[in-house]
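Field reference: sequence -> structure
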Amino acid sequence: MINDSVWVGPHFQAIEFRCNCGCGENEVHQGVVHVLEEVRKTVGVPLRVSSGVRCPSHNAKCGGAPNSFHQPQENGRGYAADFTFSNTALKTPINIIRLYMLASEELGDEGGAILYPTWVHIDFRGALGKPRYRSSQGKYNWPRIGPGLVTKYPHSQT
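Structure field:
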């Protein structure tokens, strides 16, 4: 654990990655911070980390995967973050898709990206020797956008 007030990047403090159960776990891999900083730089508005490091107990309580990269790994660091816009008005489907695309591009072959209706999950699994992952498997078929969020697709008139 590191002091919550430490700036781990130009726009993010350690407290933003702290486990939501209050246990104090907050140390995140620098690659995660780098991706968030690059995405923030591109979109030009503040981002909010909704879930950073999760202790095993909190991960189980919130329904996280048993092998979640949010959990501290052997070196004590979490390798994942869920993030979205700080401004609720910006959480539109197209804007969340933009965050996913930007994060996916920035991660390259080093990590995983999963698109959810109002946030994006990123992880730096490559640093742990795990293969790249995209929820769309590179086809951008926009998974996990539930009914009612994206309901119509343009059709060509023939």
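Note: The chain has a mean pLDDT of 86.
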